[in-house]
Amino acid sequence: MTISERNQKQTGIPLRVFLYTLDQISLMVEIPVATLEKTYIHFEGRTIATYRPEKMRARNISAREDIPEWRVADKEVIRWLKNRGFKVIERGWVQN
Fold first, then answer.
1. Which of 96 and 87 is assigned the larger pLDDT?
2. C-alpha to C-alpha distance for 7 and 18, rounded to whole angstroms
3. What are the angstrom distances between the C-alpha of 15 and each of 12, 19, 45, 88?
4. How far apart are CA 6 and CA 45, in angstroms?
5. CA-to-CA distance for 1 and 71, rounded, in angstroms?
6. pTM (whole model) above 0.90
């Protein structure tokens, strides 16, 4: 099969947005949750300092009156991992 034939059979599709919890990120990069929160997370609407690129932007997905549930979008995690020197391989192809 030639490259052009193979490209005609592949279709790129957008991946669903996945929202990571802080403990999931902690497990992936082997950093304690407390250290992750203190050093690498910018809590949107809570952190007083301005957002810096070396931090991940976490957003609260719960209602105002509920306990906060902080989540980080997958694109933000990927951006942060690349910023920290991790090699990230992204795939999103459907093949016939």
1. 87
2. 27
3. 9, 12, 27, 15
4. 47
5. 43
6. no
